[in-house]
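call fold(seq) -> tokens
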Amino acid sequence: MNAPLRLRLDGAALVSNWRHLAKLSGTAACGAAIKANGYGLGARDVAARLAEAGCRDFFVATWAEAAALAELGVAVSVLHGARAEDPPGAPHARPVLSTAEQVMRWKPTGRPCDVMVDTGMNRLGVSADEIGAGLLDGLAIETLMSHLVSADEDVPLNARQLAAFAALKGRTQAKRMSLANSAGIALGADYAFDLTRPGIALYGGRQRPGHDAIRQVATPEAQILQRRRVRAGDSVGYNATWTAPADTEVAILNLGYADGYLRCFSGKGSAMAGAVALPVIGRVSMDLTAIDVTALPGLREGDWVAMSYGLPETAALSGLSQYELLTGLGGRYDRIWA
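ret:
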């Protein structure tokens, strides 16, 4: 059954974005963060397309996310490590260990792993002091990694983290080192090390000038449930936040905050029908959104419109991060790849 909501997903743009980021990574390998169901787009579909393009390193948050990719035959790193409750590994997946407890739990297995070291995020990761004390001795470490705090900003902390991480070179048995995320890739070659780990930029996010070539991947589209005329002086939606200044043609869309199109778009967002912008009017509700379609008399019930959803522009409009805009898109969309 076709849903009255769909995400138009541009597979060529996804691959183009990865290739651009791989080029920016220089001699380093370029991986892909596909956690949170591929940032909301569908992890299996994203991984399959990027693997075909040449990507060999994928990153998810949990073992359940890794298990969903088992049939694809790609190598997966599990960023949240190995809890006591987690399975003892999988042929295609390895944990990113981040605590002394995880290290001690994993070491007897003798299996490959990755390790996260904290260089300033104070989120996940073992410390440089723990490494110096021999915590990682005896581990079969594939990749030693850290995570940049503010790579999307020009701040001294970037250089401090770079120096702290570079100082660990040769102090572990790790085959590779990895620091740069999407924004970090655009900070320069020094940040690339052996492997980069882009996320948001793969999916259309732009954070730094080096991302100018990044293309939009996901566009929400909604079907019109009803077209109606609202008389001058009448209101639309909850709490009557919009009143028609003149007779207005209004379309009601099958889209609302339950689908990730949040109330912050009330009176700010817009849809597109061809080259015509159609403003959101009134308050976005759980399942419905109203737009002004006076400019398009031919638009009818059952027709589709595309929501304006370029990530940098929509983030600035809404106050949401580019990450929230994608990962908040719900399960009611048909995800349609082109």
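The two ends are 19 Å apart (CA to CA).
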